[in-house]
Queue: 2 jobs
Job 1
Amino acid sequence: MNILAIDTSNRPMSVALYHNETPLIEHTLNSKRNHSVQLMPAIDYIMKEVNIQPKDLSKIIVANGPGSYTGLRIGVTTAKTLAWTLNIPLVTVSSLELVAANLIYSSGLICSFFDARRGNVFTGLYRAQEGRLTEELPDQNIAMEEWLDRLNDFGEPITMVSPTEHTFSDMVYEILGKRAKWVTGHLSFPQAGQLVLLGKDREPVDIHTTSPQYHRLVEAEVKWLEKNAQNK
Amino acid sequence: MDQEKILAIETSCDETAAAVVEGGTTLLSNVVATQMDIHQKFGGVVPELASRHHIEQITLVIDQALNEAEVTMEEIDAIAVTEGPGLVGALLIGVNAAKTLAFAHQKPLIGVHHIAGHIYANRLEQEFQFPLLSLVVSGGHTELILMKEHGDYEIIGETRDDAAGEAYDKVAKALDLPYPGGPVIDQLAHEGEETYDFPRSWLEKGSFDFSFSGLKTAVVNQIHQLKQKNEPISKANIAASFQASVVDVLVEKTYQAAQQYGVKQLIVAGGVSANRALRRSIQERFEGTNIAVSIPPLYLCTDNAAMIGAAASIQYRNNQYASLNLNAQPGLMIER
């Protein structure tokens, strides 16, 4: 079974090709260039390198958010179109779980987060135990300060990990103190191969209706809802 | 020899569309999923919302286009997609879907200019005669484009401020009419009379450029004055007077340009070409000339993918293919 995995949720872009649980090739880059330009050539490249044709693919796994709206749509559009046209299953995995999965062989709480600007984050809380991840708090869009107060209630050490640039280091220290540990560098970046390990046995999604998990309404919708609530 | 079959995709604004076109002239299918009702309550297209809806529709629409055309991907000769201009987030959905299909089935990929599509919508109805002049009018464009041969575009006039369709939307807003303004104003104008003498912006002599912001301001000021004086506002008469000014300028400049460049065919394209007053007025002005006038049927006036497939046919025959690094180009120019 040849599995193609794709992540374009944030600035890093990662694609991987696995044969069952065996990695064949993984290609990850972290540059300011455009995922829309780079994704298809990257997939073309990794498949040619290991001599696999599109028709030889048997499953697609994609990180479907949260993250950069545009980035997510590039990955998810490509993944769903490929799965549909090749008539193979599509599996989606949380983009936050993907980052947390870098620490899957540790033990304890892992908070992965992406900067969502103006003091907000996209974040989720996972627990690693015996090579498995379980969700402790669901992925959400929340003010970092409020989120850290909730993390504080766990009273346990928490490993913080983020592939995006942010300015929350001081706030994390103030609220969680020494219970917060940071993982940076290589292990803070999404690696598409982890998608295969997380998603290979998961239930496929309905390809046509699949879209990213944005975890946030469009601003015009928020304003419209506020206005209509006032008028009532 | 069989003529090429092109699968075309268009997602530049608020319609998710796919079509199969044979030989650039025969429509095998034409599927359009519109988001009009979704954006209506916001008084205009919300780009992020448009992108979110495109991704939910894209494979459904392509699937339906293939089914209705009764062709499989193996029988498709090339994949065409609007690369620009348009909303970048919206364009990206179509571009990435098209690239994926081209990659998965090892088919040529063709990037098409949205306006070239609007012009080529007419070739699904009638073969082109060069030199050919196109009046392209929509929510985002007001342009006179001269073509001496297939795939060759020269802009000889364009708007210096608002597009014609944009002026319609702004006037509709000032009259508390729903979005989009074009069809509503066209309907109201039909019921009203031209009682206000709104300005016609001809610009300097010999120019084929347009300007609609002065007209829009004049209309808005007139509405304010009536409101201040507590006089009744006849929306129908304002609509009729506004529309008369827009149509006058569009038709006259188009006529002058057609004469000056000695064209054999005139094409009216883009969303505003659905406007009844414009259609009638163009026909009347060009009556008795040797210039063939073609105005597409209503379903080809608004955004659709059939027009993209028609335009792509020319590029297919010239082997003008894109590579897998094709990107959305929100500000793409039509002139080379």
Job 2
Amino acid sequence: MFVYADNAATTKMSRAAVEAMLPYLDEAYGNPSSLHTAGQRASAAVQSARNTVAELLHADPKEIIFTSGGSEADNQAILSAAALGAKHGKKHLISTAFEHHAVLHTLRKLEKDGYEVTLLPVHENGIVTAEEVAAAIRDDTCLVSVMFANNEIGSIQPIGEIGAVCRKRGVLFHTDAVQAVGHVPIDVQALQVDLLSLSAHKFHGPKGVGVLYARRGVLLTSLIEGGAQERGKRAGTENVPGIVSAAAALRESCDHMAETSARLIRLGNKLIDGLRTVPHAALNGDAVQRLPGNVNFCFEGIEGESLLLLLDQRGIEASSGSACTSGALDPSHVLLAIGRPHEVAHGSLRLSLSRYTTEEEVDYMLSEIPPVVEYLREMSPVWKDMERGVKPHLL
Amino acid sequence: MALYSEKVMDHFLHPRNVGEIPDADGVGEVGNAKCGDIMKIYLKIDGDIITDVKFNTFGCGSAIASSSMATEMIKGKPLSEVKKLTNQAVTEALDGLPAHKIHCSVLAEEAIQSALEDYRRRQEEAEQ
């Protein structure tokens, strides 16, 4: 059996998304900036996609900027807010310790440029509270950036409450919603979000297409100079096939969100309950406030990369926060941020499901994963020391 | 996954000499669980020859493969030869490792040298 359980990394494009794209590859291939019929057809398609995305986020089409992906949208949102802040002498930004690197590394760059950054610690369940955000806001704070849902452990943040706090204090609020859009309901007005980033390939759309929502009145800084595309805020000929396809994928995901979400919560909980029977294993992230279909566990005494390789041999494609899977020295900053010790964080496994995941696939994972964990533990000196009482169990 | 050579995958998927030797003549453990790698090597030595060797490893695919290959390379070999085992030799025998995984072969070399050290210490204690 083959099981793709790495949907938080990327998803398979839906049939609808592929088909939406096709006419714009070799039929309606005009440049939207061109005056002729072909160009105007492409331009109309981009406008229609913009209307769709705006409608699904409860935004105005003028507030939607298409980008090359989530990372670009994150970079532009943060750098724009920082530039706006600097105009008023506000050079303090607030974020969390477990953001995506597209956010963390942009903030680090700003720090080198003289900005001050506060990274809020995250609770054990992978959540920051609006009170903690409120307490960190200063008179010179120009931006709060808190991810909608964490990409590794799936914990969903109280975005509406944080939005209310920021609006009340007059501070711009950005949310990296790359993992959440298309999976949980999002209304930028109700949530009082000023800036939001999303990425199409996380909801069965194409890679290379992202969106930055910027509330009217929030002046964006261009990262790419050139033509006047995207209201002058993002130069470069529009990725017409990708944009059209992204909108189709988002429409489809939102249309089926209620049923998909109910099914994925049930399948995810089945996986969680099954993996909890493995001794000395623990779920990462909040048990309830989590993305449908996100399952993330730490298994004590083993290392994640060897676990992934063995699962891959059995047809299960997943991911891990182990250092060895990224080429880094430290394991996942997310797992460290929620308080997992290094040695435990190395043994993590993320299974992320999608609407294409079947019950049989979940059953197969439940039958394959525990014996592989057991096999690796049998050759692990760390596990043996724990079993003999030489070292304490940490989970 | 094409991250590793076929040799590495073979030794990772079918590791040789996994286990412990309860009455080992020398035991060496190196690495650190915090960093995600620990290797423990058990040696049985008769006269000048490594008659048996077993390993336990906590680590990634290349750490397990390096342990397996290194134990194969020293089994049945005289101590004089084993002392000269280098991480480069282990890496070459595995048809190479990705640059950021070379430290796995270093750990294998260190684990064996540490087990030999332990053997020498025990010999000295026995003589006294």
